[in-house]
């Protein structure tokens, strides 16, 4: 690796990641710094007493330069959390211009606590959490700071689509929650707008600015009063954050009808009208978890985000959505399983937890592989998804936009 890196005509710096246990043995130091013009770069793997002391000395000695951080982990996800790497490392007061990371495998560049948090996908693995393809990023710096963060992929052009209502859907009159996605490998979805167009020749509705839900999803509530066929028109603007005008605008649409929606039985016959029975907030973000229903309870796992510090499993009453108990064990990213009077789930620290189904009290937990293992012949697993397009996929049947379980 080092011999190949030495053949580059430009300076080459490797940063230790969470799959590099022997990085310092075969590659080099896992914390270092260097200068490039008026910029000072610091690189380290994980915050700690020794690392933080070194960072404080290094930054104090280079206080006259603009600071850029290179780290495997992102700057943070919850501004209120004391566990964000930018806080744990003591770097928040230094106000870095940018924090470059790769662990999340996504195409992302947005401010976090005053620092531009730039996360880049992997060069050898694409289509991960936000469907970003394989590729690399070129970041341009000038005397004012970060000027460009374009990601260069194997190739996904700016694309926009309506994820709800889907083509052919039947919705009830009244409020309609329009959901859309906009993704591009070389720019960012800066904003979106939609409007409802009746198919009978009536005047179209006004354009409605949509609210962003993360880096590439948008939603807006509109009113549909007339029955019959309609069309939702979508326009998504793509460009770079802070630009005066978008680079391009991509349009899309979906055809749907306003009427009385009905579910279908396996043989394709109408079954019963669909309606929202209840909606209950669970706190944090539901990511990759599907609800488990057992003994009149709905169990759902969630993780921390910028809306809530709660992370763990929540039990809701199946009949009305009332919260019965919470198990605050940390981020839960996978389905909750239940057997007898015990619920089982895995936290983000790869720890298996067992809690009492009646009250949520933890019965025990275990880390590592203390029993037997069996090779399943698969190198990857895929979560259950509901989507017409892979890049618009969301976990089913939870609502990742509002962190609410819907029944």
TrEMBL record:
Entries under SUPFAM superfamilies matching the protein: Metallo-dependent phosphatases, Quinoprotein alcohol dehydrogenase-like
Gene3D superfamilies attached to this UniProt entry: YVTN repeat-like/Quinoprotein amine dehydrogenase (2.130.10.10)
Coiled-coil region list: none
Record-linked InterPro entries: Metallo-depent_PP-like, Quinoprotein_ADH-like_sf, WD40/YVTN_repeat-like_dom_sf
Protein's UniProt name: Uncharacterized protein
Organism of derivation: marine sediment metagenome
Organism lineage string: unclassified sequences, metagenomes, ecological metagenomes
């Amino acid at each position: 690796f080092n011999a190949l890196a030495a053949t580059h005509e430009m300076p080459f710096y490797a940063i230790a990641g969470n799959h590099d246990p022997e990085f310092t043995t075969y590659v080099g130091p896992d914390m270092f710094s260097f200068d490039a013009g008026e910029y000072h770069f610091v690189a380290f793997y994980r915050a700690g007493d020794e690392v933080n002391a070194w960072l404080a000395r290094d930054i104090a000695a280079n206080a006259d330069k603009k600071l850029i951080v290179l780290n495997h982990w992102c700057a943070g996800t919850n501004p209120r959390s004391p566990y964000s790497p930018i806080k744990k490392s003591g770097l928040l007061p230094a106000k870095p211009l940018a924090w470059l990371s790769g662990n999340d495998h996504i195409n992302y560049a947005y401010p976090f606590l005053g620092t531009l948090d730039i996360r880049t996908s992997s060069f050898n693995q694409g289509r991960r959490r936000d469907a970003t393809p394989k590729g690399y990023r070129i970041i341009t710096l000038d005397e004012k700071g970060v000027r460009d963060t374009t990601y260069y992929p194997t190739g996904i052009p700016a694309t926009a689509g309506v994820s709800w209502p889907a083509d052919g859907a039947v919705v009830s009159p009244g409020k309609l929650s329009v959901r859309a996605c906009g993704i591009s490998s070389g720019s960012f979805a800066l904003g979106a707008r939609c409007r409802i167009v009746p198919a009978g020749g009536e005047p179209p509705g006004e354009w409605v600015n949509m609210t962003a839900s993360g880096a590439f999803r948008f939603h807006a509530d509109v009113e549909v009063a007339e029955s019959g066929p309609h069309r939702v028109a979508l326009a998504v603007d793509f460009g770079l954050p802070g630009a005066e005008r978008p680079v391009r605008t991509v349009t899309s649409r979906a055809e749907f009808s306003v009427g009385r929606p009905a579910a279908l039985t396996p043989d394709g016959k109408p079954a019963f009208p669909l309606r929202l029975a209840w909606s209950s907030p669970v706190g944090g973000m539901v990511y990759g978890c599907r609800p488990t229903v057992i003994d009149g309870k709905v169990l759902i796992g969630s993780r921390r985000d910028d809306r809530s510090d709660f992370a763990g499993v929540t039990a809701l009453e199946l009949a009305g959505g009332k919260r019965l108990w919470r198990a605050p064990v940390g981020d839960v990213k996978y389905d909750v399983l239940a057997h007898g009077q015990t619920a089982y789930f895995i936290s983000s620290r790869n720890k298996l937890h067992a809690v009492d189904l009646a009250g949520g009290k933890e019965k025990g937990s275990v880390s590592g592989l203390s029993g037997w293992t069996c090779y399943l012949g698969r190198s990857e697993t895929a979560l259950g998804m509901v989507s017409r397009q892979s890049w618009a996929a969301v976990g089913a049947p939870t609502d990742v936009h509002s962190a609410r379980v819907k029944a």
